[in-house]
What we know:
Blueprint lengths: L2 E12 L10 H4 L1 E3 L1 E11 L4 E4 L5 H15 L7 H5 L12 H7 L4 H19 L3 H4 L7 E7 L7 H13 L4 E5 L5 H12 L4 E5 L7 H11 L6 E3 L7 H10 L4 E3 L6 H9 L5 E2 L3 H18 L13 H12 L6 E5 L7 H6 L1 E2 L8 E3 L9 E2 L1 H5 L9 E3 L1
Parallel strand pairs: 5-6, 5-11, 6-7, 7-8, 8-9, 9-10
Antiparallel strand pairs: 1-3, 2-15, 3-4, 5-13, 12-14
Helix pairs in contact: 2-4, 5-12, 7-8, 9-10, 11-12, 12-13
Amino acid sequence: MKITKIEALVFSKKVPKEHQLNWDGKAWGLRQLVVHKPFVKISTDEGIIGMGEPNISPNHLKVLVEETKPYLLGRDPCEIDNLSTPAFGEPISQNIMYVAYLAARGKPGFLAGINEALWDIAGKSAKAPVWKLLGGHYTDKVEAYASCGELGNTVEDISKEAARMAELGFKGYKLRVTIKDYLEKVKAARDALGDDVDLMIEWNFRLPNAKTAISAIKKVERYELAWVEEPIPLGDIDGYAEIRAAVETPISGGELLTSRYLFKERIDRGAYDIVQPDCCRMGISEAWKVAFLASLKGLPCVPHNWSGNGLNTAAQLNLLAAIPNHWYLESNESYYGTCPTFKKLLFDGSPVPKKGYFYVPKRPGLGVELNKEVATECAYIDGPSTAPI
């Protein structure tokens, strides 16, 4: 089997006016007018087609697809790792895509999309779901948590939203906080959720150092947080280790990391209690290796799934099914980077939470197929995607 074609597909949907201030629009003074979603499509001489969802801008995707065609066309798509994983520390001759990686100008998210598409092809060729190719499955379902809590929301907004997510059956609820509002918002969320729903907070690197983070986390530990996510800058590995040693609440992170090497350093140095790779940033191959490294330390894997679209969610579920240290999967409940059409309709078989769980796809490959009828309704929309309030 040989690769015969690689294409960039970009879909768009207008955001309804009532949702244009998602995500954090009130905080940043911007309306989200349009949501764009890029995908990679790879065809083979046997008629098998694979698709991947890269974390990259539509304009970058189109350029990189053209630049990598010479390295992909004619290749065996089942040489997955050789064609689509970063080659840090390896001779160039052992990884033909290393040249393409350099061409990507620091855009490993593009390789992640290629990697997902190749796994999709391999699974379809073997007439098996990807999780079976990864060694079999440990679970048929994964707990879902609602990723919400915009910065611009008031304390009352957070209370209402948390209660609504609990009513929908989510097993956990995560909100964004700042140093100015975290005490009130965390309390409001816990009061609304009750004791049976997990609560997580996301700092998005907003705290300046470990000392500040330790003080803040200790003040909310009475609310029994499932984890605190990325409180300080990503590069401060010693700071993460210091925080982890000083508080009882688990510390999670890694959503922006793009290889096992970057995760290994943090795991070895005690930075995280929970690892959060994302298949649309590093691909299934690298994420599986990250999960394995974490399992050696007894750390759970909770993939970052902010794109929240059907294809990448399916990839994440195939990963989680195949690892013993699976736990939660994130469900983006906003209009930032996704929308109901992209999550539920763009792909036949798209996994969506049902009564607090994502169910693992069982069809060959990633388990979803592009819905061509819906895709025609999602043609690319040129022009600005945001505007001032």
